[in-house]
Write a structure and sequence with these properties.
Shape of chain A: globular
Shape of chain B: elongated
CATH superfamily of chain B: MetI-like
Helix content of chain A: 25-40%
Number of helices of chain B: 12
Radius of gyration of chain A: 21 Å
Strand content of chain B: under 5%
Helix content of chain B: 55-70%
Oligomer: heterotrimer
Structural class of chain B: mainly alpha
Chains: A alpha/beta, B mainly alpha, C alpha/beta
CATH class of chain B: Mainly Alpha
Order of helices and strands of chain A: EEEHEEHEHHHHEHEHEEHHHEEH
Chain lengths: 331, 291, 315
């Protein structure tokens, strides 16, 4: 592999395939996903339930359930290191220190019987030498940084509201200055005014520490506010990938166009919304060809036979569809 | 517009048929069911099929091991153990199952009312159950048995008290959890009466743990019945109730282990069969586990 | 025109170990036939409690509730049953709002079965028609909830709510748990049914874009108090209450070229238990003054646009 210096290809996911096995069924969660991320960049991973977003994040950290999950193909390279070839001990050095994750539900992400200050301190002490006092001091710093008075160090999670719990989770995630932050729907469970606070906080801390981030979400508004790059994922495949401007100004995949069309917009008055017909596919029984074809207006026989390759759109971003021209002409 | 296929094409959809169909797919559960069914049939037919009368003594063939003449051997009074085990099945199986059924049903009703209404009703009922549970199982059964006297029906009553508090608490806990679900609020909004909510919606969604507990309960009922017989309460000799046979044979275990082994096996096989069946039933009753 | 639903000074308090929780505190509004009132607010604002209190799933603490002009505040017994048939609710969680052990057909039939007024054939026919109306394919009608996806489960919930032919339906965040592409389907369905059957909705949600799309009027709540009520479009063009303004500005916009100018609120929600008198938003309001700690009055600033803020004319 080339040894790329500087920020290029800080994270390189190539053709990732992940499946879950249970009894006689196989769930094809991720089907050949390739993504690249530069240092300090924010990638928005947009998709609906079951699209495979969380599985990708967990694959980077290698925290997929041992028994049922299987990485069936592809590799992930972080700053030149092949993550799938590392031993468990080496991975433990990476988790929490180089790469950390904010999970979706702040209500269940914290240990209910451990004081929140101690939970942050645990992360610090796992990755840093030094004595107990140093670690506590660092944990207190993190609390202050996320806007929680350090006097609350010894309180328990149930004494905090949802927004504050999420801040504690962020403090834990950033305590060791990771280079990559994986945020899995970090604000979905929060009220919109608290969401604004938390997103601002993440942006501020990111800027301070130059942390790259993969933000998993289904909310296009959040993507618009926080991301540099956007990847649209459906049935475990990336259907469209480009800069935020490219995706928002010129969405080219019928699914992306459909997503934008289905969202009620604040600045447009519509009598009826434009839903996407049908349902997301059953991951144990994916359609042949392009996974979106059963719901797609532009689908032709070729779409039903063979999945599309990544093509280039007029403005230069990636789109996995052979009908880009029709989709853009659209309505 | 393609729509994901639903796996099971239903022919007849009543709950019963669905459960039976689901149960049939579970091989272990079916084995349990078959074994238990065989035991019941044998027990019912036993008076007609046993080679010797259950209380026929033969002092010339005392404590003989298994042979072609006496399949399970004989006991200290020369009685044929095979015939006694088969005949005793009527008593052991009936007592175990009936006592468990009564204790589970009554327990569940108490638990349902307690769990649904909460407040004072719950408090009072739970305190009464506390008292019952604070007495060792055996002790309460002994007291009731002593008061009522020995005999088949009295023993069943004495036994029923045992699983009751556990069944009540188990159902109560599940009900208190299920009660918080929105489908219960929905039932109120469509004017369901309280009894309909409890019987129709809450109990069916809450009673699976009780099924498993009940099947295991049969085993403990049989063993408590044995203990009662041992101390002169419960079922009296010469009735060949399995537990009683087991207790009586203890003193001969060194010389004639077959006297202990066969009644013991009878209990063990019954318990195993019921456990397999119970597990299968619990899985079959849960629509979510279908696939 | 008598409004279908009217509430006056409605209060719902819950006694807790720490004191009295003022979940809904003095809310007044009315909804005309065929219209949708959107009720928005964040956690703890009381919007769900409000819906449940109006349809008598919870007993109100004080205040009045009118259904089609009739005072139904303290109905009991047979009258309550009849009332309930006219006011139904669609729940938020498609996973816990259907009995997991009953087929979806059973769930749709049950309201009619319980009411006791219909013959079996009538019920069967009506149930089939309802399920067709909400778009549930025939071969799915005997399925169980866990076999269906969230969108379909919500449709069953809608069919159940329609079974008794109500005049008023409280929609309690009916699309919040659904994927975006399915949300749009269900929202369109709700609108279609409203037109077809002349239904009146109270649509509770925390999603401002959804509420703008579906509501005729919007009521903004904060910690149990109603802070603003106005026709839908007007609220977004001219929000008057500082909380409404902060709420609207917090929504991340999908227009990447015109990001919102945001008014970030300080701090956390104050507690609704034993609250101090006056505006509950004052603790976080950038414009709070002394007068804000007095009980606020609801004022009609422009026709149909009500605000509860003593400083509204200055700001």
């Amino acid at each position: 592999m080339n040894d790329n210096t500087e920020n290029k290809n800080f994270l390189d996911i190539e053709n990732l395939v992940v499946e879950y096995r249970s009894n006689d069924q196989t769930v094809h969660a991720v089907n050949g996903v390739s993504l690249k991320l530069e240092g300090g960049q924010v990638l928005g991973l947009v998709g609906e339930t079951g699209a495979g977003k969380t599985t990708i994040a967990k694959s980077i950290l290698r925290i997929l359930p041992d028994v049922s999950a299987r990485i069936a193909g592809g590799n992930i390279e972080l700053e030149g290191k092949q993550l799938f070839q590392l031993s468990e001990t080496e991975m433990q050095q990476i988790r929490g220190k180089k790469v950390s994750m904010i999970f979706q539900d702040p209500m269940t992400a914290l240990n209910p019987v451990q004081r929140i200050g101690e939970q942050i301190e645990e992360v610090v002490s796992l990755h840093n030498r030094g004595n107990h006092e140093d670690h506590v001091k660092r944990a207190e710093e993190m609390l202050e940084m996320v806007g929680i008075p350090k006097e609350r160090y010894r309180e328990y999670p149930h004494q905090f509201s949802g927004g504050m719990k999420q801040r504690v989770v962020i403090a834990m995630a950033l305590a060791c200055n990771p280079d990559l932050l994986l945020a899995d729907e970090p604000t979905t469970a929060l009220d919109v005014t608290i969401q604004a606070q938390v997103l601002d906080l993440i942006a501020e801390l990111r800027k301070k520490y130059h942390t790259a981030m993969i933000l998993i979400t289904h909310d296009m508004g959040v993507v618009a506010q926080t991301c540099d790059m956007v990847a649209v994922i459906y049935a475990g495949q990336i259907l469209e990938y480009g800069t935020k401007e490219q995706i928002f100004d010129h969405p080219s995949h019928p699914y992306t166009i459909g997503l934008f069309g289905a969202i009620p917009k604040l600045n447009v008055d519509e009598e009826w919304l434009h839903p996407i017909n049908g349902l997301p596919p059953d991951p144990t029984n994916l359609p042949q060809g392009c996974p979106f074809n059963p719901r797609c207006r532009f689908a032709t026989d070729e779409c039903r036979k063979k999945a599309a390759e990544m093509m280039k759109t007029p403005d230069g971003h990636d789109c996995r569809c052979i009908h880009i021209a029709e989709a853009l002409k659209g309505e | 517009m393609a729509v994901p296929e639903i796996r099971n094409k239903h022919r007849n959809n009543s709950e019963m048929h669905r459960v039976m169909r689901q149960l049939k797919k579970n091989k272990l559960a079916m084995i349990g069911l078959v074994i238990f069914a065989i035991e019941i049939i044998v027990a019912i037919l036993s008076p007609y099929i046993i080679p010797y009368k259950y209380n026929a003594m033969d002092m010339t063939s005392v404590q003989k091991g298994p042979s072609l003449v006496h399949l399970f051997g004989t006991d200290e009074l020369g009685r044929d153990i095979f015939s006694r085990v088969l005949y005793g099945g009527q008593y052991s199986l009936t007592m175990g199952v009936l006592a468990t059924f009564i204790s589970t049903t009554v327990g569940m009703l108490i638990g349902a009312v307690s769990g649904y209404f909460g407040g004072k009703v719950d408090n009072i009922m739970m305190r009464i159950l506390d008292v019952i549970q604070s007495l060792p199982n055996m002790l309460l059964s002994i007291v009731i048995s002593a008061v009522l006297g020995s005999g088949f029906v009295n023993t069943i009553i004495a036994l029923s008290v045992n699983g009751l508090p556990a069944a009540a608490r188990m159902l109560r806990a599940q009900i208190m959890k299920e009660r918080e679900n929105e489908y219960i609020e929905a039932a109120v909004s469509i004017n369901c009466s309280r009894s309909r909510i409890i019987l129709n919606h809450l109990i069916p969604n809450s009673f699976s743990p009780n099924i498993v507990q009940a099947t295991m309960g049969v085993a403990s009922m049989i063993s408590i019945a044995a203990s009662l017989s041992f101390i002169g309460l419960g079922v009296q000799p010469p009735i060949p109730e399995w537990g009683a046979m087991l207790s009586a044979a203890r003193q001969f275990i060194r010389q004639s282990p077959h006297m202990v082994i066969f009644p013991g096996l009878a209990i063990a096989v019954t318990v195993l069969a019921l456990n397999l069946l119970g597990d299968g039933l619990r899985d079959a009753l849960d629509p979510k586990l279908k696939n | 025109m008598t409004p279908i639903v009217e509430i006056q000074n409605l209060k719902k308090y819950f006694p807790t170990a720490h004191g009295m929780l003022h979940a809904v505190d003095d809310v007044t509004f009315s909804i005309e036939k065929g219209k949708t009132l959107g009720v928005v607010g964040e956690s703890g604002c009381g919007k769900s409690t409000l819906g449940r209190t109006i349809i008598h799933l919870l007993e109100s603490t004080s205040g009045k509730i009118f259904l089609n002009g009739e005072d139904i505040t303290s109905v009991k017994g047979e009258q309550l049953k009849q009332c309930r048939e006219k006011m139904q609710i669609i729940f938020q969680d498609p996973y816990s709002s259907l009995d997991p052990r009953k087929s979806v057909e059973y769930t749709v039939r049950e309201p009619m079965v319980v009411s006791g007024r219909y013959k079996k054939e009538e019920i069967d026919k009506a149930a089939n028609e309802l399920m067709e109306l909400v778009g549930i394919d025939e071969r799915l009608r005997k399925s169980y909830p866990h076999e269906l996806d969230g969108g379909r489960r919500q449709r069953i919930g809608i069919a159940r709510a329609l079974a008794l032919d109500p005049m008023f339906i409280v929609c309690d965040e009916p699309v919040s748990a659904l994927d975006v592409s399915i949300q749009a389907q269900v929202l369109n369905l709700l609108k279609e049914l409203q037109i077809k059957r002349g239904l009146t909705y109270m649509f509770v949600t925390h999603d401002m874009s959804v509420v703008k799309h579906i509501s005729d009027d919007i009521c903004v709540m904060y910690l149990g108090q109603m802070v603003e009520k106005s026709p839908s479009k007007e609220l977004f063009v001219n929000p008057l209450h500082p909380y409404t303004r902060a709420l609207l500005s917090a929504i991340p916009s999908t227009d990447i070229h015109n990001p919102n100018k945001r008014e970030i609120l300080r701090g956390e929600l104050t507690s609704p238990i034993n609250p101090k008198p006056g505006c509950r938003f004052a603790a976080r309001c950038p414009y709070a003054s002394e007068a804000c700690h007095q009980p606020q009055k609801l004022e009609e600033v422009t026709p149909g646009h009500f605000v509860s803020c003593c400083r509204v004319h200055e700001l």
